[in-house]
């Protein structure tokens, strides 16, 4: 199995989220919501949407990084004009969200969200701050590895895939039930980015490469 199951008891939230009955798929015709929902265009994006470090008056705290890669279909072909969204914690491991109240500092110059469209070669690129680990109370002394959430849209709001990108060598991998809920070791490895010196910009930002392969990169199903 490549993707995590709906129910993974060690990941406690899935006990409440996972369906208790078999899914019932309605029969929809060609005029269904998938074909009539709004589509995205270049005018939807702002000039700084892909640079999470330039959205406020000052520089955010933390390690500046560049995250880039390609969105590919199952045959390895680039997917152009796909809307890619990211959201993440700040360098101290805290989200700019009312639901996150753990005692780590907020950064007034970092809100942790961005988006871009893939180019003709399927490539996306973000400039951001490396997120910190954070506690999440799933079990005693539970900490999430540093990660960035990714969302990839198709041509409608109903065509959306959500996943997470991790950083190489994180010591928390073995203790994280979300990461470990993917039973295939090779599939878990596909969620880990790789450090890339060619992407790294001298005296400015470290670079990481991470491709999203539709149908192959594990996606969240809960």
TrEMBL record:
<dbReference type="Pfam" id="PF12391">
    <property type="entry name" value="PCDO_beta_N"/>
</dbReference>
<dbReference type="Pfam" id="PF00775">
    <property type="entry name" value="Dioxygenase_C"/>
</dbReference>
<comment type="similarity">
    <text>Belongs to the intradiol ring-cleavage dioxygenase family.</text>
</comment>
<protein>
    <submittedName>
        <fullName>Protocatechuate 3,4-dioxygenase subunit beta</fullName>
        <ecNumber>1.13.11.3</ecNumber>
    </submittedName>
</protein>
<dbReference type="InterPro" id="IPR000627">
    <property type="entry name" value="Intradiol_dOase_C"/>
</dbReference>
<dbReference type="InterPro" id="IPR050770">
    <property type="entry name" value="Intradiol_RC_Dioxygenase"/>
</dbReference>
<dbReference type="InterPro" id="IPR012785">
    <property type="entry name" value="Protocat_dOase_b"/>
</dbReference>
<dbReference type="InterPro" id="IPR015889">
    <property type="entry name" value="Intradiol_dOase_core"/>
</dbReference>
<dbReference type="InterPro" id="IPR024756">
    <property type="entry name" value="PCDO_beta_N"/>
</dbReference>
<feature type="domain" description="Intradiol ring-cleavage dioxygenases">
    <location>
        <begin position="67"/>
        <end position="95"/>
    </location>
</feature>
<dbReference type="GO" id="GO:0019619">
    <property type="term" value="P:3,4-dihydroxybenzoate catabolic process"/>
</dbReference>
<keyword id="KW-0223">Dioxygenase</keyword>
<dbReference type="GO" id="GO:0018578">
    <property type="term" value="F:protocatechuate 3,4-dioxygenase activity"/>
</dbReference>
<keyword id="KW-0560">Oxidoreductase</keyword>
<dbReference type="GO" id="GO:0008199">
    <property type="term" value="F:ferric iron binding"/>
</dbReference>
């Amino acid at each position: 199995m490549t993707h995590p199951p709906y129910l993974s008891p060690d990941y406690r939230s899935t006990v409440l989220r996972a369906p208790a009955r078999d899914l019932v798929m309605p029969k929809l015709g060609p005029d269904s919501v998938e074909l009539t929902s709004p589509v995205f265009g270049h005018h939807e994006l702002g000039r700084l949407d892909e640079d999470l470090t330039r959205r406020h008056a000052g520089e955010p705290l933390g390690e500046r990084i560049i995250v880039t890669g390609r969105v590919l279909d199952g045959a390895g072909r680039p997917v152009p004009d796909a809307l890619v969204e990211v959201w993440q914690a700040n360098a101290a491991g805290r989200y700019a969200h009312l639901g996150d109240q753990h005692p780590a500092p907020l950064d007034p110059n970092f809100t942790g969200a961005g988006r871009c469209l893939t180019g003709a070669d399927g490539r996306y690129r973000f400039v951001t701050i490396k997120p910190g680990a954070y506690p999440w109370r799933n079990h005693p002394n539970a900490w999430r590895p540093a990660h960035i959430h990714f969302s990839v849209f198709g041509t409608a709001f109903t065509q959306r895939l959500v996943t997470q990108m991790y950083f190489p060598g994180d010591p928390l991998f073995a203790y994280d039930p979300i990461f470990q809920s993917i039973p295939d070791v090779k599939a878990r490895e596909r969620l880990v980015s790789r450090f890339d010196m060619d992407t790294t910009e001298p005296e400015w930002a470290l670079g990481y490469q991470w491709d999203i392969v539709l149908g192959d990169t594990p996606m969240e199903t809960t």
